[in-house]
C-alpha cells in the first residue's frame, strides 16, 4: 500500500517519518502487511479502517511503543530503534485515555508532563510558570486550573490532555481519536490547531472518522483488514 | 480554544528533554500528592497489618510466652502480606487512565522513572508499616529490646518487597483479575527477604547480633535496586502494548 | 522454509533415537538400582528412592534453566521457536518438581517417620514448584498469546535470578533451625554399584525429558502455525489442485535439511 503526496509542495528536508514494508502479526494473524508511506513536515496523515484493522497498533508502532513488527520505521532518515532518544524527544502521543489523574488539578497534571518532557524556559514570550495557564486558557479551561480533574467532565479532561499540544513543542503529533468527547466548538478549534501545526512544518498522524473541512494538507491511509473476521492463510515464505 | 500552538516549532525542534532528576522528582511528588488526597487508600495496608496481627492471638493462644516466640515471624508475615495487598494498585490506576502509556513514551530512561514510583510506594506503605510495627510488637509481647531491629529490618526489607512486588504488578496490570495471580508469582520471590528479615528480629530477641542479617537484607536490596527496575520496565512495556 | 517447519522435520528424525535411548537407560538403571545395587548400611533399602528422586530433582532444576535460556533467546532475538520450547517444557518441569517432592516425602516415612519435614532441599523444591506454577499460570492469563509469552519469559528470568538466592536462604534457615541428620541433598560416598545405576537413571531421565519436550514442542508448532501453508499441506487440508505440487516441493526441502 502506498500513498502519493497530497500536495505538490516541495519538501526538501528528509521525510520526518518513513515507513518501509511494515507488517504486523499478532497471534498468527496479520493486522496489516507491507505498508509503505512517508510523512513530511506540514502533512496530516489520517489512518482509517474498520474496527480491528490495526489502527491503534499502527499508531503504537509509529510512536515507538510497540516494536514487535516486520519492516522499519525511519525518523528523519534513521531507524527509530537507533534514534530513539531523538525520536521520543520530538514526539507527542495522545492515546485512547487522556492520561489525566482525577485527584490532581489541571495544573498539577500538566506540571508532571512538563517535568517529563522538559520545561521550556521561554515560550513565545511566556515563561514556563505562566505557560500552563496560557495552555489551559487556549483549550477553554480558563478558570478550571485549580479544580481536581475528577470534578471535570470527560470532555474537559480530554481538553487538559489537548493542552499539552500547546505546551509541549514537538514536531510529530500522534493522536488516537483526538476528537472523542469534544464538543462541536472544540472540534472546530482542534481542527484549526492541527492545521496550524502542519502549516508551521509539524506533522500529525491520527486515527479519526472526523472529516476535515480543509483537506489540503490531509493524506489518508486505509487499513483494509479482514472485515469478515476470517483468518487468512499465511504465506509460508514470509513467515 | 485558541487557534495557534503557543510554542513556535523552530524552537521546539531543539527538543528540550529536561533533566532526569526533575522527571523522577516530579513522578515521585505526583504519586505522593495523589495518595495524600486519597487518604483512605493509604490506611488500607496499615489497617490490614493490624487486623492480621489481631487474628493470631485469637487463632493460636493469648499465651504471652508463646506469642513472643512467634512474634518476629508473625509481624514479618503480616507486613509482607500488607505490602502484597497494596501492590495491585501500584500501576493499576496509571494503566486505566492512560498515564502509564505516557510514562513509557518519555525520552527519560523508564527503569529510573519506575524506580521513582516504587520509592513512592515504599514511602506510602513500607515505611509506615515499619513505623507501626513496634506497636504490634507490644501486643504480641515482643521484648522491647528488639523494637529497633524490627523497625530497621522492616524498613530495609520492605523496600526490597516493593521492588520485587512491582515486577509482578507490572506483569499483571493489564489483566482483569491480576490480584490472585500477583500473589502466586510474587510470594515465592519474597521468601529470602522474609527469612532474613524475621531472622534479624529473632536474633535480636535471643540477644544475638542482628547486624549480619541486616547486612544481607541490605545486599538483597542493592541487588533488587539494580535488577528489578529493568524487569519492571520490561513488564510495563508488555502490559501496556499487549 | 521457516524455522518451526525445519524443526518439525528434523525432530521427527531425532525422536525415535531419543525414545529408544531413554527406554534402554531407564530400564537398565531402574532394574539395576532397585534389584541389584547393595542396600545402604545406614538407611537400608529405603535409600533406593534416590534412583527416582535425584534424577527428578536434577531435571527440575535443569528445566528451569532451559526456561530461562529460552526466555533470553525469545526476548532478545525474538525467535518464537524458543518460546514454543518453553511452553512445552514448563509443565514437564513442574511435574518433575512434583515428582521430586513426592519421592522426597515418601523417603521421609522410613527416615524421619513423617511425610513432611522442612528439610532444606524439600523446601527449596516446594518453592520452585510455586515458581513453575507462576510461570505456567501467567502465560495462560493473557488473552493474547504473544503477551503471555513475553510475560512468562520475563518471569522465568526473574525466577532464575532468584533461585540461587532462595536456595541459599533456605539452606541457611534450615541449618539454623534444625541440623538434619540425613538429607537427600548430600549423597554419602557410594560404591560404583550404587552410583552407576544412578548415573544411568539421570541420563535416562534427560533423554526422556528431551523426547517429551520435543514432542510437546511439535504439537505447539502445529497449533501456532496451523494457518500456514506447510502445516495445511502436512495435514492435507488444501485444495487438491495445489496440494500435489506443493507437497512435492515441501518434501524436496525437507530432504535438503
TrEMBL record, chain A:
SUPFAM superfamilies: P-loop containing nucleoside triphosphate hydrolases. Keywords: ATP-binding, Cytochrome c-type biogenesis, Membrane, Nucleotide-binding, Translocase, Transport. GO terms for molecular function: ATP binding; ATP hydrolysis activity; transmembrane transporter activity. Residues 17-239 form the ABC transporter domain. Pfam families: ABC_tran. GO terms for biological process: cytochrome complex assembly. PANTHER family: ABC TRANSPORTER I FAMILY MEMBER 1. This is Cytochrome c biogenesis heme-transporting ATPase CcmA. It comes from Cobetia crustatorum.
Automatic annotation (TrEMBL), chain B:
One of its GO terms (cellular component) is plasma membrane. One of its GO terms (molecular function) is heme transmembrane transporter activity. It is found in: Cell inner membrane. It is a multi-pass membrane protein. InterPro entries: Cyt_c_biogenesis_CcmB (IPR003544), Cyt_c_CcmB_bac (IPR026031). It comes from the Bacteria. GO terms for biological process: cytochrome c biosynthetic process; cytochrome complex assembly. Keywords: Cell inner membrane, Cell membrane, Cytochrome c-type biogenesis, Membrane, Transmembrane, Transmembrane helix, Transport. Coiled coil: none annotated. Its main location: membrane. The chain crosses the membrane at residues 42-60, 66-91, 112-133, 145-173, 180-201, 213-236. Required for the export of heme to the periplasm for the biogenesis of c-type cytochromes. Belongs to the CcmB/CycW/HelB family. PANTHER family: CYTOCHROME C BIOGENESIS B-RELATED (PTHR30070:SF1), HEME EXPORTER PROTEIN B (PTHR30070). NCBIfam families: ccmB. This is Heme exporter protein B. It comes from Cobetia crustatorum.
